[in-house]
């Protein structure tokens, strides 16, 4: 049976998401939900949104997709059943019966607000019972009278002081009269049968309670004596030995529960949870929220089957660009338009990779192929991702299919390509108020080319003086990131759509740029006389140098 959490499939793009990544995730999740009712497809993002994407989502009235920091399975991916719990004032008999009925070995102990107090296992019950065999003192741990009566299935005959707790040392009156009376002190609890003379002597001795076994008839004389001496009289239907054992089982759980509890939260990774359960004395972990309220319990049996997040990757297929934990996830599909990267799977999956301008083009193409009606807002998102990734259909990666689908999507979205394109450009080019790191990471991707680790960012501006004003800050961030991530080369491509050519800022092994493009890097800066597509022009040339030098 597929549970609710197992039905979730996250559709997610690369880290440092751009509009194509986010819009294709939303669009493909919509398409999959229309075609496949077995799963619930949820669009997600792997990082913070840039200004352009925020504009697009606001323009077409979409909420931000959920942000995911990791695809590694966590406790939240499990379907936790309602936990079986007990109260600290419940008896050992109560929890033992519960364990037998539910075929479980451990029971969490919670308060009235379901906050976790401790845990009781079969071992705790056995150890307590063995440790107290043959001796019993209720001075430190009293027994609730109602619990005792329920456990014994007995009756209160006389309770002059209206006691609700049973305290004192416990004795079984199975010896000779003189021996028993010699050992008994005032305040003790005595279990005995129908020995009327002994009952009377024990009352006179000052016992706090007598438990009369075997449903024995209790004489009026004993009742009167008990009333005069403030002695509690209880009748048990069981024999003396059984009554003694049931008295032990009436002990409240708070006196035997362990507070050495292994806990985890919803965001605890399954790999960490598995280790916690393995090391737990109780072979389990209790799942709690931030206020220690109990949410569920996980045992070794629950972890026998693999637990993974299901995911569809869009607009990328390289580990360096994927959200953390992607290798622990169950990848169902990859929808992309980049070079084939290094993500591998254990089982065959559906991969759709086309050398076209955007992933949104692929999603729109699939909607038309399956004759799925495209709503206005979805059409707007797909058009936005398409126009963004092709720089308004001008980049060398733009294909006839991109242009054709842009023309089909625009009227559905109720926009004109030229007018809306200018709005999109304006939103994407604003760097006012942004730090050097924000500018660098606005559209930033990492690649492994041969034995080199390369990272390339892109930014568009109308006035390059805006960039020059932040140049020193950007360069410092580039070098800091290069050291932090062990990149061999970090590049920032700066383009103005109204001009030809691209400026570059470079840190690291600059000779790679010089050899690939035949240019000279001075003061960490260079210029390429034409606008390049990062995926079609820039990375392939750098990759050739990396793999042949």
Summarize the structure in words.
Strands 3-2-1-16-17-18 form a six-stranded parallel sheet. Strands 7-12-11-10-9 form a five-stranded mixed sheet, sandwiched between helices. Strands 19-20-21-22-23 form a five-stranded mixed sheet. By secondary structure, it is an alpha/beta fold. Helix 7 runs parallel beside helix 8. It has 19 helices and 23 strands. The radius of gyration is 37 Å and the shape is elongated. A hairpin with a 5-residue loop joins strand 4 and strand 5. The two termini are 55 Å apart. The chain has three domains: 191 residues, inorganic pyrophosphatase (n-terminal core); 109 residues, HprK N-terminal domain-like (Udp-n-acetylmuramoylalanyl-d-glutamate--2,6- Diaminopimelate Ligase, Chain: A, domain 1); 113 residues, Roll (Diaminopimelate Epimerase, Chain A, domain 1).
Question: What would a concise description of this structure say?
Answer:
The protein has 19 helices and 23 strands.
Give a topology summary.
Blueprint: E1 8-12, H1 19-35, E2 40-45, H2 51-59, E3 66-67, H3 92-102, E4 106-110, E5 116-121, H4 122-131, E6 143-144, H5 145-152, E7 155-158, E8 165-166, E9 170-172, H6 177-183, E10 189-192, H7 196-205, E11 209-212, H8 220-228, E12 232-235, H9 240-249, E13 263-264, H10 270-279, E14 284-288, E15 294-299, E16 310-314, E17 330-336, E18 350-353, H11 359-369, H12 376-389, H13 400-413, H14 417-429, H15 436-441, E19 444-449, E20 452-460, H16 465-468, H17 471-485, E21 489-495, E22 502-508, H18 511-517, E23 525-528, H19 534-548
Parallel strand pairs: 1-2, 1-16, 2-3, 9-10, 10-11, 11-12, 13-14, 16-17, 17-18, 20-21
Antiparallel strand pairs: 4-5, 6-8, 7-12, 14-15, 19-20, 21-22, 22-23
Helix pairs in contact: 1-11, 1-12, 2-14, 7-8, 11-12, 12-13, 18-19
